[in-house]
Specification:
By secondary structure, the protein is an alpha/beta fold. The chain has 10 helices and 10 strands.
Length: 300
Amino acid sequence: MTTAPKYLEPQRLAKLHGLKLRAQHIVEGFVAGSHRSPYHGFSIEFAEHREYAPGDDLRYVDWKVYGRTDKFYLKQYEDETNLICNLVLDTSESMLYQGPDAALSKLEYAQCLAVTLAWLVQQQQDSVGLVTFDDKVNTLINPASSAAQLMQIIDVMESTNSAGKTATGPIFHELSERLKKRGVVIIISDFFDDVDSMIAGLKHFKHRRHDVILMQVLDPAELEFPFSKSTMFKGMESMPELLADPNSLRKAYLEEMNASIESLRSQAQGLQMDYLLVRTDESLDVILNSFLSSRMARIH
Protein backbone atom coordinates (compact mmCIF):
# COMPACT_ATOMS: atom_id res chain seq x y z
CA MET A 1 0.00 0.00 0.00
CA THR A 2 1.33 3.45 -0.89
CA THR A 3 2.31 5.88 1.83
CA ALA A 4 1.63 8.87 -0.41
CA PRO A 5 -1.53 10.02 1.42
CA LYS A 6 0.69 11.11 4.32
CA TYR A 7 1.22 14.28 2.30
CA LEU A 8 -2.47 15.00 2.66
CA GLU A 9 -2.60 15.03 6.45
CA PRO A 10 -3.13 18.51 7.94
CA GLN A 11 -0.19 18.15 10.34
CA ARG A 12 2.18 17.49 7.45
CA LEU A 13 0.69 20.17 5.22
CA ALA A 14 1.17 22.70 8.04
CA LYS A 15 4.92 22.13 7.89
CA LEU A 16 5.03 23.14 4.24
CA HIS A 17 5.27 26.90 3.81
CA GLY A 18 3.30 28.40 0.96
CA LEU A 19 0.35 27.08 -0.97
CA LYS A 20 2.47 26.21 -4.02
CA LEU A 21 4.63 23.86 -1.98
CA ARG A 22 1.57 22.33 -0.34
CA ALA A 23 -0.09 21.95 -3.74
CA GLN A 24 2.94 20.08 -5.07
CA HIS A 25 2.75 17.55 -2.23
CA ILE A 26 -1.02 17.26 -2.54
CA VAL A 27 -0.74 16.42 -6.23
CA GLU A 28 2.08 13.95 -5.60
CA GLY A 29 -0.08 12.23 -3.00
CA PHE A 30 -3.05 11.91 -5.29
CA VAL A 31 -0.98 10.78 -8.26
CA ALA A 32 0.49 7.97 -6.18
CA GLY A 33 -2.83 6.98 -4.66
CA SER A 34 -5.16 7.44 -7.61
CA HIS A 35 -5.08 3.76 -8.63
CA ARG A 36 -7.35 2.91 -5.73
CA SER A 37 -9.56 5.99 -5.60
CA PRO A 38 -12.47 6.87 -7.92
CA TYR A 39 -12.21 10.58 -8.73
CA HIS A 40 -14.47 10.79 -11.75
CA GLY A 41 -17.43 11.89 -9.65
CA PHE A 42 -18.33 15.24 -11.16
CA SER A 43 -20.58 14.34 -14.12
CA ILE A 44 -23.86 16.20 -14.07
CA GLU A 45 -27.08 14.50 -15.22
CA PHE A 46 -27.57 11.29 -17.15
CA ALA A 47 -29.12 12.09 -20.52
CA GLU A 48 -29.26 9.00 -22.76
CA HIS A 49 -27.46 5.92 -24.04
CA ARG A 50 -25.63 5.55 -27.33
CA GLU A 51 -23.87 2.59 -28.91
CA TYR A 52 -20.18 2.10 -28.21
CA ALA A 53 -17.77 3.14 -30.96
CA PRO A 54 -14.04 2.24 -31.10
CA GLY A 55 -12.02 4.75 -29.11
CA ASP A 56 -14.83 5.64 -26.67
CA ASP A 57 -13.98 5.90 -22.99
CA LEU A 58 -14.81 2.54 -21.37
CA ARG A 59 -15.55 4.30 -18.07
CA TYR A 60 -18.98 5.17 -19.43
CA VAL A 61 -20.03 1.67 -20.53
CA ASP A 62 -23.33 0.73 -18.90
CA TRP A 63 -22.58 -2.82 -17.77
CA LYS A 64 -26.14 -3.41 -16.58
CA VAL A 65 -27.44 -2.78 -20.10
CA TYR A 66 -24.68 -5.01 -21.49
CA GLY A 67 -25.83 -7.81 -19.16
CA ARG A 68 -29.37 -7.56 -20.53
CA THR A 69 -28.65 -7.01 -24.22
CA ASP A 70 -25.12 -8.37 -24.76
CA LYS A 71 -24.36 -5.04 -26.51
CA PHE A 72 -22.14 -2.17 -25.42
CA TYR A 73 -23.86 1.15 -24.74
CA LEU A 74 -22.36 4.27 -23.22
CA LYS A 75 -24.03 6.53 -20.69
CA GLN A 76 -24.05 10.09 -21.93
CA TYR A 77 -24.31 13.06 -19.61
CA GLU A 78 -25.32 16.61 -20.34
CA ASP A 79 -22.24 18.78 -20.94
CA GLU A 80 -20.02 15.70 -20.61
CA THR A 81 -17.71 16.88 -23.40
CA ASN A 82 -16.55 19.82 -21.31
CA LEU A 83 -17.75 19.80 -17.75
CA ILE A 84 -17.61 23.22 -16.11
CA CYS A 85 -16.66 23.27 -12.42
CA ASN A 86 -16.53 26.52 -10.48
CA LEU A 87 -14.87 26.50 -7.05
CA VAL A 88 -16.39 29.19 -4.82
CA LEU A 89 -14.07 29.91 -1.89
CA ASP A 90 -15.08 31.93 1.19
CA THR A 91 -12.18 34.19 2.21
CA SER A 92 -13.98 36.17 4.92
CA GLU A 93 -12.31 36.88 8.25
CA SER A 94 -14.01 34.03 10.11
CA MET A 95 -12.17 31.60 7.83
CA LEU A 96 -8.90 32.65 9.51
CA TYR A 97 -9.90 30.86 12.71
CA GLN A 98 -7.45 28.22 13.91
CA GLY A 99 -8.27 26.35 17.13
CA PRO A 100 -5.69 25.62 19.84
CA ASP A 101 -4.92 22.12 18.53
CA ALA A 102 -5.42 22.73 14.79
CA ALA A 103 -2.56 22.39 12.31
CA LEU A 104 -4.13 24.73 9.76
CA SER A 105 -6.61 27.58 9.79
CA LYS A 106 -9.95 26.99 8.11
CA LEU A 107 -8.83 29.12 5.17
CA GLU A 108 -5.54 27.25 4.73
CA TYR A 109 -7.36 23.94 4.83
CA ALA A 110 -10.05 25.21 2.43
CA GLN A 111 -7.34 26.36 0.01
CA CYS A 112 -5.74 22.91 0.08
CA LEU A 113 -9.15 21.37 -0.50
CA ALA A 114 -9.84 23.69 -3.44
CA VAL A 115 -6.45 22.98 -5.03
CA THR A 116 -7.08 19.26 -4.73
CA LEU A 117 -10.50 19.54 -6.35
CA ALA A 118 -9.12 21.75 -9.14
CA TRP A 119 -6.45 19.18 -9.90
CA LEU A 120 -8.96 16.32 -9.88
CA VAL A 121 -11.25 18.14 -12.33
CA GLN A 122 -8.32 18.78 -14.66
CA GLN A 123 -7.41 15.09 -14.54
CA GLN A 124 -10.77 14.48 -16.20
CA GLN A 125 -9.79 16.93 -18.98
CA ASP A 126 -12.56 19.21 -17.75
CA SER A 127 -12.60 22.93 -17.02
CA VAL A 128 -12.24 24.48 -13.58
CA GLY A 129 -12.56 28.09 -12.41
CA LEU A 130 -12.29 29.93 -9.10
CA VAL A 131 -14.33 32.56 -7.29
CA THR A 132 -13.18 34.10 -4.00
CA PHE A 133 -15.58 36.16 -1.92
CA ASP A 134 -16.33 37.76 1.44
CA ASP A 135 -19.06 40.42 1.34
CA LYS A 136 -18.26 40.89 -2.36
CA VAL A 137 -16.77 38.89 -5.19
CA ASN A 138 -13.02 39.51 -4.99
CA THR A 139 -11.77 37.28 -7.79
CA LEU A 140 -13.39 35.41 -10.65
CA ILE A 141 -11.22 33.17 -12.82
CA ASN A 142 -13.20 31.81 -15.74
CA PRO A 143 -13.13 28.01 -16.11
CA ALA A 144 -10.44 26.53 -18.34
CA SER A 145 -8.71 23.19 -18.78
CA SER A 146 -5.26 24.51 -19.75
CA ALA A 147 -2.13 23.36 -17.94
CA ALA A 148 -1.56 26.91 -16.66
CA GLN A 149 -4.99 27.15 -15.06
CA LEU A 150 -4.08 25.33 -11.85
CA MET A 151 -1.09 27.58 -11.21
CA GLN A 152 -3.20 30.67 -11.83
CA ILE A 153 -5.72 29.45 -9.27
CA ILE A 154 -2.95 28.82 -6.75
CA ASP A 155 -1.40 32.25 -7.37
CA VAL A 156 -4.75 33.94 -6.67
CA MET A 157 -5.26 32.00 -3.45
CA GLU A 158 -1.74 32.80 -2.25
CA SER A 159 -2.42 36.51 -2.60
CA THR A 160 -5.80 36.36 -0.85
CA ASN A 161 -6.41 38.78 2.02
CA SER A 162 -9.07 37.83 4.57
CA ALA A 163 -10.60 40.82 6.30
CA GLY A 164 -14.17 41.18 5.14
CA LYS A 165 -17.48 40.06 6.55
CA THR A 166 -19.52 37.27 5.01
CA ALA A 167 -22.51 37.99 2.76
CA THR A 168 -23.30 34.60 1.29
CA GLY A 169 -26.92 35.22 0.27
CA PRO A 170 -26.28 38.25 -1.98
CA ILE A 171 -23.07 36.69 -3.30
CA PHE A 172 -24.90 33.50 -4.32
CA HIS A 173 -27.56 35.55 -6.12
CA GLU A 174 -24.86 37.49 -7.99
CA LEU A 175 -22.88 34.39 -8.94
CA SER A 176 -25.99 32.59 -10.13
CA GLU A 177 -26.26 35.23 -12.83
CA ARG A 178 -22.53 35.65 -13.53
CA LEU A 179 -21.77 31.94 -13.99
CA LYS A 180 -23.47 31.72 -17.35
CA LYS A 181 -22.83 28.12 -18.37
CA ARG A 182 -24.47 25.43 -16.33
CA GLY A 183 -22.09 23.21 -14.39
CA VAL A 184 -20.92 21.99 -11.01
CA VAL A 185 -20.55 24.71 -8.35
CA ILE A 186 -18.55 23.68 -5.27
CA ILE A 187 -18.91 26.18 -2.41
CA ILE A 188 -16.20 25.90 0.27
CA SER A 189 -17.05 27.96 3.35
CA ASP A 190 -17.75 27.83 7.07
CA PHE A 191 -21.23 29.14 6.18
CA PHE A 192 -21.29 31.42 9.22
CA ASP A 193 -24.17 33.53 8.02
CA ASP A 194 -27.95 33.69 8.17
CA VAL A 195 -29.18 30.30 6.95
CA ASP A 196 -32.40 31.65 5.39
CA SER A 197 -30.43 34.19 3.34
CA MET A 198 -27.99 31.49 2.22
CA ILE A 199 -30.78 29.14 1.19
CA ALA A 200 -32.46 31.88 -0.84
CA GLY A 201 -29.20 32.36 -2.73
CA LEU A 202 -28.74 28.63 -3.19
CA LYS A 203 -32.24 28.38 -4.67
CA HIS A 204 -31.08 30.83 -7.33
CA PHE A 205 -28.29 28.40 -8.30
CA LYS A 206 -30.91 25.67 -8.50
CA HIS A 207 -33.10 27.84 -10.71
CA ARG A 208 -30.14 28.27 -13.07
CA ARG A 209 -29.78 24.46 -13.09
CA HIS A 210 -26.32 24.30 -11.55
CA ASP A 211 -25.27 21.16 -9.68
CA VAL A 212 -24.29 22.55 -6.26
CA ILE A 213 -22.03 20.95 -3.64
CA LEU A 214 -21.65 22.56 -0.21
CA MET A 215 -18.45 21.84 1.74
CA GLN A 216 -18.70 23.29 5.24
CA VAL A 217 -15.19 23.64 6.67
CA LEU A 218 -15.06 23.83 10.47
CA ASP A 219 -12.35 23.67 13.11
CA PRO A 220 -12.66 20.86 15.70
CA ALA A 221 -12.81 23.49 18.46
CA GLU A 222 -15.88 25.03 16.83
CA LEU A 223 -17.58 21.65 16.84
CA GLU A 224 -16.52 20.45 20.29
CA PHE A 225 -15.97 23.68 22.31
CA PRO A 226 -13.12 22.16 24.36
CA PHE A 227 -12.41 25.26 26.46
CA SER A 228 -12.57 24.95 30.24
CA LYS A 229 -10.84 27.94 31.85
CA SER A 230 -11.98 31.55 31.70
CA THR A 231 -11.28 32.54 28.09
CA MET A 232 -11.13 35.73 26.05
CA PHE A 233 -12.99 34.98 22.84
CA LYS A 234 -11.78 37.21 20.02
CA GLY A 235 -14.54 38.53 17.80
CA MET A 236 -14.23 38.27 14.02
CA GLU A 237 -16.02 40.17 11.26
CA SER A 238 -16.53 43.25 13.51
CA MET A 239 -17.79 41.25 16.50
CA PRO A 240 -16.43 42.38 19.91
CA GLU A 241 -14.16 40.40 22.23
CA LEU A 242 -15.86 38.53 25.07
CA LEU A 243 -14.36 37.30 28.34
CA ALA A 244 -16.46 34.36 29.50
CA ASP A 245 -16.58 31.13 31.46
CA PRO A 246 -16.81 28.40 28.78
CA ASN A 247 -18.55 25.98 31.15
CA SER A 248 -21.55 28.29 31.37
CA LEU A 249 -21.72 28.63 27.59
CA ARG A 250 -20.97 25.11 26.35
CA LYS A 251 -24.44 23.59 26.33
CA ALA A 252 -26.13 26.55 24.64
CA TYR A 253 -23.26 27.00 22.19
CA LEU A 254 -23.24 23.36 21.08
CA GLU A 255 -27.02 23.30 20.72
CA GLU A 256 -26.92 26.43 18.54
CA MET A 257 -23.99 25.17 16.45
CA ASN A 258 -25.53 21.74 15.87
CA ALA A 259 -28.91 23.27 15.01
CA SER A 260 -27.29 25.60 12.48
CA ILE A 261 -25.36 22.76 10.82
CA GLU A 262 -28.42 20.54 10.66
CA SER A 263 -30.58 23.33 9.23
CA LEU A 264 -28.09 24.00 6.43
CA ARG A 265 -27.64 20.28 5.75
CA SER A 266 -31.34 19.44 5.64
CA GLN A 267 -32.35 22.45 3.53
CA ALA A 268 -29.50 21.88 1.07
CA GLN A 269 -30.42 18.23 0.71
CA GLY A 270 -34.04 19.30 0.25
CA LEU A 271 -32.82 21.25 -2.77
CA GLN A 272 -31.02 18.09 -4.00
CA MET A 273 -27.61 19.60 -3.28
CA ASP A 274 -24.76 17.58 -1.84
CA TYR A 275 -23.62 18.63 1.63
CA LEU A 276 -20.33 17.65 3.25
CA LEU A 277 -19.12 18.64 6.73
CA VAL A 278 -15.32 18.90 6.65
CA ARG A 279 -13.21 19.01 9.82
CA THR A 280 -9.79 20.60 9.49
CA ASP A 281 -8.17 17.71 11.38
CA GLU A 282 -9.24 15.18 8.73
CA SER A 283 -6.96 13.96 5.97
CA LEU A 284 -7.92 15.26 2.53
CA ASP A 285 -7.68 11.90 0.80
CA VAL A 286 -9.99 10.24 3.32
CA ILE A 287 -12.62 12.97 2.95
CA LEU A 288 -12.57 13.14 -0.83
CA ASN A 289 -12.30 9.42 -1.45
CA SER A 290 -15.40 8.78 0.66
CA PHE A 291 -17.40 11.71 -0.73
CA LEU A 292 -16.61 11.19 -4.42
CA SER A 293 -17.13 7.44 -4.18
CA SER A 294 -20.64 7.93 -2.82
CA ARG A 295 -21.38 10.70 -5.32
CA MET A 296 -20.20 8.60 -8.25
CA ALA A 297 -22.39 5.70 -7.10
CA ARG A 298 -25.45 8.00 -7.06
CA ILE A 299 -24.69 9.58 -10.43
CA HIS A 300 -23.85 6.38 -12.27
